[in-house]
Amino acid sequence: MDLLFMMKNKFFQFWKNHRQLITIGLFLSIFAFYLRSPFEKEAKVKDTCAKLNSSYQITGDEAIKKLKLKAIKNYNNRELANYYCERYLGIK
């Protein structure tokens, strides 16, 4: 019983001394994750577009899957992915 009380007391002292640091650290890590999400998506799109346009490193089907686009009948998947990349990156 006495040991349990000491453990609770030590945790309370730790929390009392470090609560501001822990709270700020948690807030900063959540904020960093929030900021990283859009940049990560844009980096993936740019990487896929670069691979698509440089020496045929990936096929049109792979690009459609990575860019999460719908395939349209009577159109080449590579052309669709290229059009998307041009519009997304503002090339034309």
Number of domains: 1
Shape: rod-shaped
Report the sheet with the most strands, covering strand number, pairing sense and barrel closure. none
Radius of gyration: 25 Å
Write the layout of secondary structure elements.
Layout: H1 2-53, H2 60-67, H3 77-89
What does this structure look like?
The protein has 3 helices and no strands. It has helices spanning 2-53, 60-67, 77-89. The protein has one domain.
Keywords:
92 residues; mainly alpha; 3 helices; 0% strand; rod-shaped
Concise structural overview:
Helix content is 79%, strand content 0%.
